[in-house]
Amino acid sequence: MVVVNYHDDLNEVQGDPVLAALLSAPAAAAPFDRIDWWRNLVKNCDILPLIAVATDGTQRLVLPLMRRARTIIALGNWYNFRLTPLATADANRPALLRALAEDLAGQAPRIILEKLSESDAAELAAAFRSTGWSVWQSVSDINHMLKVGGRSYAEYLAARPGPLRTTLKRKGSKVEVSLYRSFDLQAYEAYEDIYAASWKPEEGSPTFLRRFAEEEGATGRLRMAVARVAGKPVAAQLWTVESGTAFIHKLAHREDAKALSPGTTLSAALFAEVIDRDRVALIDFGTGDDAYKRDWMEQVRPRYRLDMLRPRWPGNWPIIVRNALRAATGRG
After folding, report:
1. What is the pLDDT of residues 104-148, one digit of tens each?
2. What span, in angstroms and rounded, lies between the C-alpha atoms of 288 and 140?
3. Which of 190, 212, 237, 241 has its CB 3.0 to 4.6 Å from that of 233, i.e. a possible disulfide?
């Protein structure tokens, strides 16, 4: 018999040994799947979680959610690369997801989940449709990635676009690069100064990001680099590595140093570090179809949005009509 529970207190989640193991490394293979990430969101981003847990004996399936008015959405913010249902190895995923979808009907009339992989979107859509939800699926974002395929950095670099390799040859020697595999306060403060002088918008939650860097540095998962010109920090990047994947979280350069392309030199140093030293199999550049990502990445995969509505809820009827019209005209 499947039992569904909801938790807004992460200590309750941590108190279940099976859940605690599922939501910790190495079982949780990405930062966004760990209870530490969720705790950081709660503490530093003013987020109240709704952790939905389906249980059947030793089996667990977890969907990290939160409320937004009458709608339930994925737990996360702009720092999350993706959302995925998390399950123990012995879990009957279809059965647990169906039970979860059926029970969630009593929690909200509408659920919106974004940044889903194709397989997760299909699995979730099937579960919710089978329990009476009206489900609308669309592509909401794109994820650039690199499958290393056992190559060395030199082999990988040889396949990069000519202009990128020329930039590295012409300007790389003008930039000094420092690499860090643990948290370094001076390096991180340099990143904050660089970000403030970059083209990027105001940081969403500086406290969240620093705490994340400190935690990843303590576990050995942090990969950070700072580029300097004549001793002055001009570019910085923050990556993490775990379970064979390198995640590129943050990168920034000072606008007044743009002519030296310090970000390109810095990226090259970190690609070399994670390919040759960490031997990663995959490099994940997060969401967004920025043009510069195409120079470094070789594959793209869509990220999906599911808009799931209870069809008998009157407030949903205008939304269902709009979604149907979008689908009929090929826009949804």
Report:
1. 999 999 999 999 999 999 999 999 999 999 999 999 999 999 999
2. 10
3. 190
